Predict the 3D structure of the following.
Amino acid sequence: MLGNNYRGVIGDGTKGGEQLSPKQVGTDDDWMTISTGRFVAGLRATRDGNALWYWGDEFDEPLTIGPLRPTQVGTDEDWQDVTAASERQYGLRGKGDLWCFGCNRPIGRRNSPRMSRFLPGTGYESVSAASYHRCALRSGELWCWGRNHKGQIGNGEKSGEWEHVKAPYRVGGDKDDAWRNVSAGKDHTCGLRSDGSLRCWGSNEHGQLGDGTKEDRKTPVYHRGPRAIEGRRRRKPLRPPRKRKSRLPKIPSPRRSRARAPAGASCGSGRPGGRPRRTGRPRTCRS
């Protein structure tokens, strides 16, 4: 781990300062996945599956009980995935049950958070959490909930600055089961469709939705690709470099010495056929 250790996320038992170079957490080498937020959550391989661990202080208060070293959550070993958000973490376990760590107590309380069943049903395949909104996939269905002031839930509406959509909303409607992956970002969301297309919605302040504009979108819009974001024309394919002519000075090749014959003289024994050469002008004869 490395970075700001204000909340003890480095996992070495300290809190405060900065870790500017990577530092190993403990000595274990059985970590399977890890996710960072205000605190850190990770899965470690066990004999019967994966166990859930976490560390760091998720509260802003000076006196808290967050562990500064990796601590196991419960004793279950059937965890499949985990993601750490702002004050909560979400995990998948068993047959795709979605659980929440920290959802059972108000933010800021010093009581130890516990895992609680969050969404009804089973079969959830993945979950992605940003600072204040989350999304989960189940059999091609995409469900999102949380803060919606930029339209990041995808329900066609915008809420107040701190008004949250508490009930998970199915993005795209009841008949849409073509979602294959999802990633929740800062105030926006992007999802991958079964046909390979990418759809995004929510905040578009920096053009992050990829639709060629900077307008917020309350429903999924088609992502036009990197060229639309860059605003550049399609580049021509690269050509092999041309061979450049050498600029070095040419060195004259050695030639035989020549001598000029006086006027009236002839060179050689004459032309073929015995006719004598014409005279009257100087000619050059090879020596």
About this structure: The longest helix spans residues 226-230. The helical segments are 226-230.
